Amino acid sequence: MTDLPWAGDACSLVAALRAKELSPTEALDGSLAAIRASSLNAVSFVDEKAAYRTAAASDVTLPFGGVPMGIKELVSVLGWPATEASLVLADQVSPVDSTMVRRLRAAGAVLCAQTTSSEFGGINCTSTRLHGTTTNPWDQTRTREGPRVARRQPWQGGSCRSHRAATAAAPSASPPASAAYSG
How many whole angstroms separate alpha carbon 14 and alpha carbon 99? Predict the structure, then answer.
């Protein structure tokens, strides 16, 4: 077991999994440890049992084989909350996987967590009555802004890869210009 999430991008994690530098279960251990340790409030739901089952059976020859990933709460995942970050929908559960989720599963992704969003994705600040405020990883007195930052938020805090992990830049030591936003 590792308490540290993978520090590189999803492509380098796939290479490490294929080289047996670590197992999909160890990669998941690191992501879940980081989610538990985070104070960013960037994750609204964790599906540990299903994630560990998927990680244990991962085929690392697939494009995202064994890579732990977080999915925005605006995207349907079978059996996960379907709240759209709205208090009105707090008890809803998704009856289906979205097309994107079906494709990620087919590519071997280990879906482990649902990441926070603004209500219905309607504003550029994640602060909802359902989940509270998601904070900026560089300055927790500030909020994060918009979908572009939201895609990076969980792994900048060290939690997991996003559904766009293969194309996203790794976090840098200095905050992006968007980190100055305070909503």
Answer: 22
Residue 169 forms part of a structural domain? no
Residue 56 lies in a domain: yes
Question: Is residue 4 one of the residues assigned to a domain?
Answer: no
Query: For 92-129, what is each residue's pLDDT tens digit?
Result: 999 999 999 999 999 999 999 999 888 888 877 777 87
Please check the confidence at residue 49 and state whether its pLDDT lies above 70. Answer: yes
Res 59 pLDDT > 50: yes
What is the residue-wise DSSP string for the chain? Answer: --SS---S-HHHHHHHHHTTSS-HHHHHHHHHHHHHH--S--EEEE-HHHHHHHHHT--TTSTTTT-EEEEETTS--TTSB--TT-GGGTT-B-SS--HHHHHHHHTT-EEEEEE--SGGG-SSB-EETTTEEPBPSS-TTSB-BHHHHHHHHHHHTTS-B-TTTTTSPPP-SS--GGGG---
Residue with tokens 């590189």: 8
pTM over 0.85: no
> What is the predicted pLDDT for the residue at 2?
66
CATH number for position 77:
3.90.1300.10
AA identity, residue 115: T
Structural domain boundaries, residue 34: 10-161
For the chain, how many structural domains are there in total?
1
